[in-house]
Amino acid sequence: MTEAPTTTDSVYQTEALIAEDIDAYLDVHQHKTMLRFITCGSVDDGKSTLIGRLLYDSKMIFEDQLAALEADSKRVGTQGQEIDFALLVDGLAAEREQGITIDVAYRFFSTEKRKFIVADTPGHEQYTRNMVTGASTADLAVILIDARKGVLTQTRRHSFLAHLIGIRHIVLAVNKMDLVEYSQARFDEIVAEYRAFADSIGIAAFTAMPISGFKGDNITAPSENTPWYTGPKYAGISLIAHLETVEVNATADQAKPFRMPVQWVNRPNLDFRGFSGLIASGSVKPGDAVRVLPSGKTSTISRIVTMPGKDATDGDLPQAVAGQSVTLCFADEIDCSRGDVIAMADAPPQAADQFEASVVWMADEALIPGRAYWLKLGTQLVSATVQAPKYVVNVNTMEHLAAKTLELNAIGVAEVSTDKPVVFESYEANRTLGGFILIDKITNATVAAGMIHFSLRRAQNVHWQALDITREAHAGMKNQQPAVLWFTGLSGSGKSTIANLVEKKLHRMNRHTFLLDGDNVRHGLNKDLGFTETDRIENIRRVGEVARLMIDAGLIVITAFISPFRAEREMVRAMMPDGEFLEVFIDTPLAEAEARDVKGLYKKARAGALKNFTGIDSPYEAPYAPEVRIDTTKMTPEQAADMIVERLLGW
C-alpha cells in the first residue's frame, strides 16, 4: 500500500514550487477547484471539533501559502489579483443583502489540491432551518455520528434534508472512535443501521469513515489505530483525501443544457447593452442560438463580455460555463430584463404557475394555506400561495402523515400556485431553477425553502384567452377611472354604513359602481367558508378576484369586509394595477365598536358562543399606511363618505 502524503510533504512541495516559479505557483493556486461542504448531524456529535481539526491540520499549508502570496505578490506586482481569501471567507454576504439572518459558521481553508468552504451547521432541532441554508449551496455533506450514541433522529433528519436538497456526495463520519477503543464491530454496526435508513430514503451510496476529530484519526492520513480500515469493504482513505478528489457540482452542471437567470441589464452607455448573471448550468459561446423566457424571443450570442462598456473585445471570453458570472450580448434587439432566463434555443426550460413541491417550513408561525407569500426562484420574484399539504414526512419512519399545515421544521409535499408563470426545472435537474424560498410579505422573513417536483397538468392545459374589448375600452364607455375602495375595520366600526353612503353619492354623480358587502357575499359566493384563519384568507382571496374582474369591466368597486390580516389586504392590492386600490381604514376603537354591537356579535363572542371573532379571540391587524383613514369618533358617516369620495375623484 502506498504511503499517503503528509501535511509536511505538501508544505515542502509548495515551498519548492514557490522557490522555482512564483508565477506557476500563483497559476496553480488560481485554478484550484472549490468544494463547498457542510458538517451536520445531532447535537455534540463533534462537528465544530472536526472543522477545528481540518483547519489545524491545513494551517501550516494555509499560512505558508498566504505568507508566500503576500510576499511574492508585492515582489511581482500582483497585489489584489490572486489574494482572494477574504472574499472566500465571507459566505454570508448574499444573505445579508437580503436582510436574512443565518446562524451558520462558514470557514475557508486550502490544501495543495483544492480550496474549501465548510459550513458548520447547528445540530439542535429548532435550528434545522439553518442546516437547510448551509446545505443549499453544498456539494457534499459530512454527517457525523457519535460512535457511542449511533444513529439518532437528527441524524436521520439531516440525512433526509441533504438528500432532498440534492447533495450527491454523503460522508458518514463515525466520530469519537477513540471513545469506543476504535472498535471495528461498533463501526460496522452503525454503518449497517445507517445503510438501512439510507436505502429507505433513496441515498444510493455514501462513504463511511471511522474518525476522531479530537485525536485526528483518519482526518489527513490513514490512522494506525484503525488497521482494519482497509480492503474492499472499506474506503480506506482519509477524510481530506476524499474531499480533495470528489467531483464538485459545477463540473456536473457544465454538461447540462445552458441556463442563465438574468440578474440585471448592464447598460453603461448608449452603445452597449448586455445581460448579466451567474450561469446555472451548461456552457455558451458566441454564435450560439438562445431563447429568452418566458417571452420566448430568440437571438444569438454576439459577445461574452468581461469588461462591459469597453469597445475593444480583447477581454471577451470565447466560452463561459456553469459557475461563471458573465455579461452576454445579443445579435438582435430583443426584450430581456431581470427575472428572465436565457437558455439554449432548442432545449428551453418550462414556464408554469402551478407546481407540486417539497417544502421545508422554517418559521415559528405555521403555514397558513392560501396566504400569499413572496416566492423567490433564482432572480424571479412572484406572489405565491401554498395549499394544505398532501402529507408531511416522519423522518424516523419515512411514513407519510396527514396534516392541515406545516409547523416549524416540518417537511411536507404541497401544491404551490403563483400569480404569474415562472421559468423552472425540477430541482433534481437544476438546483437554481428548481429551488425557491418563501418570504413573508409583511415581515420580510424567510419562512420556507422548497424544491419543485413538476408542474401540475392543469397549469399546462389552461391558457389565457386574449379578448378584443379591453379594460380601457370598458372604462372609456363609462367615462370613469376604475378603482377598488377596500373598506377594512372591526365588526361594528361602520364599514357597511359608510360604504353604502359612498355608493349613493357616486350613483348620484352617474358613476358606475358595485358594492361587495362581507355579509352578503357569505350568503352566496362564500357560503361554504367558515371563520377560521384559513377560511378568512380564502374569503378575501375570492373577493379580491371578483373585484379584479369588476374593475376590468370599468367599475368602481366598493368592498366592506373586516379583512383582519395585512397579508391578505396586500395580496388583493397586488392583484390590481398601480393606483387602482385604495385602502380605507375605518378606525373605530374596540370599546366603541363593542358598545354599538348592532348585531349582538360581541356579546356572543364574550360568552364563548362565537369562536374566532375578530378583536376578541382572533386578531385584527390595522393598516400601516392606508390611503384613507376615518376616525369615526371624530366625524359622522356623512362626513366620512364625503372625504372618501373626494379622495377617490382627486378633488
DSSP strand tally: 28
Poorly predicted tracts of residues: 1-12, 60-66, 68-102
The CATH architecture of the largest domain can be named as 3-Layer(aba) Sandwich
Overall, the morphology is globular
**CATH-defined topology of the largest domain:** Rossmann fold
CATH superfamily of the largest domain: P-loop containing nucleotide triphosphate hydrolases
**Terminal Cα separation, in Å?**
91 Å
Number of helices: 20
Class by alpha and beta content: alpha/beta
How much of the sequence is in beta strands? 25-35%
Instruction: Write down the CATH class of the largest domain.
Output: Alpha Beta
Description:
By secondary structure, the protein is an alpha/beta fold. It has four domains: 7-249, P-loop containing nucleotide triphosphate hydrolases (Rossmann fold, 3-Layer(aba) Sandwich); 260-344, Translation factors (Elongation Factor Tu (Ef-tu), domain 3, Beta Barrel); 350-461, Translation factors (Elongation Factor Tu (Ef-tu), domain 3, Beta Barrel); 471-649, 3-Layer(aba) Sandwich (Rossmann fold). It is 31% helix and 25% strand. Helix 1 crosses helix 2 (22-30), helix 14 crosses helix 20 (637-649) and helix 16 packs parallel to helix 17 (566-575). Mean pLDDT is 84; it is low at 1-12, 60-66 and 68-102.
